[in-house]
Amino acid sequence: MNKGVLCISWDTELLWGRRDLNWQKFVSRVRKEREIIKNILTILKKYEIPTTWAVVGKMWQKGDPDWYGPDIVKMIKNTAGQEIGSHSYSHELFDQIDTQTAKIEAQNPFKLKSFVFPKNKVGYLKILKKNGFTTFRGPDKSEYELLLPRVPLVYKPFIDNGLVNIPGSMYLVSGRGLRKFIPAGLRWLKVKMGIDGAILEQKVFHIWAHPIDLVNDTEKIMANLERICEYASQKRGNKILKIQTMGEIASESDL
Length: 255
Fold this sequence. Notes:
Blueprint: E1 4-12, H1 27-30, H2 33-47, E2 52-55, H3 70-77, E3 83-86, H4 99-105, E4 114-115, H5 125-130, E5 135-136, E6 158-160, E7 163-165, E8 170-171, H6 186-201, E9 204-209, H7 218-237, E10 241-243, H8 246-252
Parallel strand pairs: 1-2, 1-9, 1-10, 2-3, 4-5, 5-7, 8-9
Antiparallel strand pairs: 6-7
Helix pairs in contact: 2-7, 6-7
């Protein structure tokens, strides 16, 4: 790896991501997700930013649009540079299931390469490898550290049970609840520090988020996303940064 790398992944789940909670209270937010995803894709297309969309498998099916989203999958597939990965079949937590359930959750009929674990609970990596996956997003130690004054972590990908582990570096937190009081520029500042750190150390800075995270305080967070994409595009133009999907990073790995 002779340049810094920016990687962005999206945990795309509709109500499947809330199935273990009181999901009814999330319905109104989930119903705004399609417009959010459309707007995200518009920004990514404008700046030619490839990203990975980890989609819950059941969303590929037809059904109640609060749970199922083949139209969302189509939107992503029709946007140049976007990778579709897996966020498991039905969002079971991999630290709470048996081997047989893990085999179901890791099924891979569309021959996807990248996997993001529900709630970042890693497990059954050998089953993922047997199902054709080549890479996964490792846990992000900084998930709740947005307000801390440290530089976000950057990593070199490494092999874990035969898969390329690309750990998360920074969760682009939502604007829900008390987070709406996060200053407008703080998310941007942390991301800039992470991109600059990746360039300096020639490592990967891996941002991740859920589309539903942009439902609250949308204008401010979407503006931050555009600023991030513009900055990354400039650094790529200066030939000191690559912007890649998880699958692209894994395919180029010389580990």
